[in-house]
Amino acid sequence: MEKTDVGILFGSKLGEKLKLCPLYHDIDLIITVPFHLKKYRIRGYNQSLYSAEDILTVIDIEFSESELIRNAATESQTKKSRYNRYEDMQDIFNVVNLEMLNGQHILQIDDIITIGPL
Fold first, then answer.
1. DSSP bridge partners of 106
2. What are phi and psi of 31, to 5 degrees?
């Protein structure tokens, strides 16, 4: 299995679950959490983008990968506590067009392997 296949499999499974859950029937937009360019160059892909694209094959929702900008590179969050992840991510992102997003029901897709279970 390719590394990107995990995101694709997750996206299709999540899309099926979202279709069944009333809380997600009025989503206006799906956005992904961007990588810093440095990390993208190392990894070569953004797993959350693959997940989001496959969710879109199951449910028809608008998608954008350019609504957030990552201001700084961060260390891997995988071995950090929930609180330390929270602290590390303060002021890391900027919203490109806040007025456009205001009042919208947004589903944000992040790298699922980094976050893991809460």
1. 29
2. -125, 155
